[in-house]
Amino acid sequence: MRGFSLWRALIGGPSERGSDAADRRIPDGDGGPAEDAVDRGCVRLGADGRFLDADAGAVALLGESASTGEGKPVARLRLMVLKRDVSDSEVTDSFEHDGRSVSVTLTAVPEGVVRADLCAARKPADAPQETVLELVVDALEYAPIGALRISDEGRIVGHNRFLSDWLGPGGSNAMLGFEFLPLVAEHDRDRVRQVIAGADASGETSRPIDVTVGGGDTERVASMFVRRPRGNPSQRVVYLIDVSEQRSLEVQFAQSQKMQAVGQLAGGVAHDFNNLLTAMTGYCDLLLQRHRAGDQSFADVMQIKQNANRAANLVRQLLAFSRQQTLIPRVVDLTEILSDLSHLLRRLIGETVVLELEHGRDLRPVRVDPGQLEQVIINLVVNARDAMPGGGRISIRTGLTETVRPLRQGDEVMPPGEYVLIEVIDTGTGMPPDVQKRIFEPFFTTKDLGQGTGLGLSTAFGIIKQFGGYMFVDSTQGVGTTFSIYLPAWTGALEATAADGPRRLDTDLSGTGTVLLVEDEDPVRLFAARALRGKGYTVLEARSGEAALELLRGENPQVDLMVTDVMMPGIDGPTLIREVRKDRPSLPVVCISGYSEDALRQRIADAESVAFLPKPFSLKQLAQAVKHASLPIDPGS
């Protein structure tokens, strides 16, 4: 019966083993006592220990020799009668026989006779060498929860192996005598003391509380239950269930919901602003056709356009944070991008900061939008410069790394794989832990009022996530900060850089044909119609998808190209395209939207034959998109 003494100390109860066994019942399928799950019998003895008789149950339980009063089991019963005074009350005891614990209840009956009632759990068929009690002990000893018993002084007087392997040096008795509270994180100790002190004397288990236990690599979140055993109310039994993964998933889910809500808000605001900015920059372009350089109004119009472009950059940051901005990813050489960018970076950081660029060997290519990746690097370098007001050193290092285990920081978990690593390291002031936890939150900034929007790092984080990568930060106050970007290494074929072709669209943006323009925002539609008419196109305007379908199906006009907004009330852009192509399957289409191209292409079956123009766009960009979509494909070009 290995481990019984330990578990009696852990689970409590009377010191006599027989009382535990006497009360034990094996439940049947209905939850009540199963009479056939135990072996029972009765032996009658005289008050002087002499054997009188034994029933058939006792003979089956103790062996054939019990029928005549022979054998060790009957001898033990005689000894129990001689050692105990059973004249006034029942006496319980137990002994081992045939690998089982046999509980004994001694009762005095008239005429100087003592009745010994025997009870033993029947051996399970699949474990003939172990009693049910042994099986329960083994299950508790190796259960995947921590279980321990603590004394009134707070010291551990019993525990299972799992607790020792989890929080201690290992071994079945390794933590006996240790204090329990030092195993709990300091910020949780007061709550644990209160729960232990308030454990109900009825023996009921307390409500669970979440506590942090262990330290360093073994620090985990555990759900703690406390019980005051009835057999020894001065002590406490504590159960610890590891819920670290569950709590981590709950935090990730709550954070993702919060970020999703903020992202939807940012995306909606960005969409509306893109419509306004499209009209602003578009009408500026129309004005600049009449007010050339040297004109009195030229500088004023350029100021309006430049500020509109600044606003467009801010909107792109919002879309990047919500991961809805338009990306044009391609397979690139990271070394080449950083080498070209280093000249701009040195001008940005000034003379008091030294920039070091260290390229890794045998780097694999990555699939990113080069312009967006450059914005991420610029953002990190500018932040590093601001963290070193007295000067310092910024190092940009690249390398190829392969992880075999998930890499975790906070709620972010990077799966194993091969990554290209970019590190931006500074020797600045560093960040405290509470700032590091919030560094990628939108609108969170440590800069003075008016010095930052709080969107820089959250935007960079959103861009890297759209690339399928990960960004981590490691900072020490007074030492510096390291931002680590992990981009999936590209293992496919290298893509050839496609040129725009020999059509020279920049020099000739005029065209002919009929364009159906579908846009629910009046300023955007009026500007686009006026711009296209100025380039030689015949323009049919529709304020909604329903109006466009009515126009096409009613008069059945000749339409050479359709330009449609994606987000419209009623029939939206993707639905309109599907309806129109039922009758005109080869009609070229240009979609305009403030949202990302990926969101559009997921909603259109034949997305490859649809061109995309992101808002805000200029007159020139609109003319280029229409000219390119309306030109026939020349196989020889």
**Number of H/I helices:** 18
By helix and strand content, what is the structural category? alpha+beta
Mind summarizing the main beta sheet?
Answer: 5 strands, antiparallel
Question: How much helix is in the residues?
Answer: 25-40%
Strand order of the largest sheet: 2-1-5-4-3
Give the number of DSSP strands: 24
Mean pLDDT: 78
Strand content of the residues, in percent?
A: 15-25%
In whole angstroms, how far apart are the ends? Answer: 88 Å
> What is the general shape?
elongated
Radius of gyration, whole Å:
40 Å
Report the uncertain regions.
1-5, 13-35, 496-505, 633-637
Structure description:
- With 637 residues, this protein is of the alpha+beta class.
- It contains 18 helices and 24 strands.
- The strands form six sheets. The protein has a five-stranded antiparallel sheet. Strands 7-6-10-9-8 form a five-stranded antiparallel sheet.
- The longest helix has 47 residues.
How are the elements arranged and paired?
Blueprint: H1 4-11, H2 17-23, E1 38-46, E2 51-54, H3 56-62, H4 72-83, E3 91-97, E4 100-109, E5 113-121, H5 132-141, E6 146-150, E7 156-159, H6 161-167, H7 189-197, E8 209-213, E9 220-227, E10 236-242, H8 244-290, H9 298-321, E11 330-332, H10 334-349, E12 353-358, E13 366-368, H11 370-386, E14 392-403, E15 407-409, E16 412-414, E17 417-426, H12 433-438, H13 456-466, E18 470-476, E19 480-488, E20 514-518, H14 522-534, E21 538-542, H15 545-554, E22 561-565, H16 573-583, E23 589-593, H17 597-601, E24 610-614, H18 619-630
Helix pairs in contact: 8-9, 8-14, 9-13, 10-11, 11-13, 15-16
Modified residues (4-aspartylphosphate): 565
Domain Response regulatory: 514-630
Catalytic activity: ATP + protein L-histidine = ADP + protein N-phospho-L-histidine
